[in-house]
């Protein structure tokens, strides 16, 4: 009897041991597949971020050839009194608010129009999305040519119509507007895509019921469409705002931050601090401050979503 029970326990133990062995092997395989992603995360994301934070507390200028020296919060205190840095933040905020607002309105309007029974809808949609797949540096070069004072087609058109040519990129009062126009052309398709996807998820029955009740098109838009897509609009605004605040390639290619500092965004200002003046400590502090600002915007978005 005792021998029989022992044999049965061994039979039960063998499948359990086999199952445990299989689970361990599966875990090893999963960890093996995670190694490339974790390596990328550590080397490309976490390590540079930690090194940047370290730099922000040091005095390290590559021109002087000195080793990094710990200075505490000195770099942050200097940034608080740095008018050029504060101006670049204000410029980036203005650019972000204006460009994102225009892109949202245009993207939503185009999405509402395309969502109707339009002929060649697929072709029109593909054509509208084309600017979004072009790299920012190429977009900057394209619009630099379009806005060029002498050879640009925009000034050629103005001259042919009897108007005086504009200094699109060399006039401090117009240069930032030209940059906003470029960004609107480039990223309105992103807003359009998100808005169209959200609109097409709205049940058609809601509109049919509203029409039966005598609701106008405007009432359908304000009472059905907007409430149903407001979360998507909020996500689109947050994503686009964070991206617009960090814009670099277009102003770098089109104006270099000029004329003067008229189009010097925060990213371009950080670039100049790091790679023109080689002040790594100041550049690190600027990066930390800009990331903190973006994190604050994102936290406000999360609170708004929870409250809603």
Automatic annotation (TrEMBL):
One GO cellular component, as annotated: plasma membrane
Bilayer-spanning residue ranges: 29-55, 93-114, 126-145, 283-302
Keywords: Cell membrane, Membrane, Transmembrane, Transmembrane helix, Transport
Residues in ABC transmembrane type-1 domain copies: 89-299
PROSITE patterns tied to this protein: ABC_TM1
InterPro entries: MetI-like, MetI-like_sf
Gene3D superfamilies: MetI-like (1.10.3720.10)
Pfam families assigned to the protein according to its UniProt record, in alphabetical order: BPD_transp_1 (PF00528)
Principal location: membrane
One of the protein's GO biological processes: transmembrane transport
Subcellular location as annotated: Cell membrane
CDD domains, sorted: TM_PBP2
Domain of life, per lineage: Bacteria
Membrane topology according to the record: Multi-pass membrane protein
Family per record: Belongs to the binding-protein-dependent transport system permease family.
Protein name per UniProt: ABC transporter permease
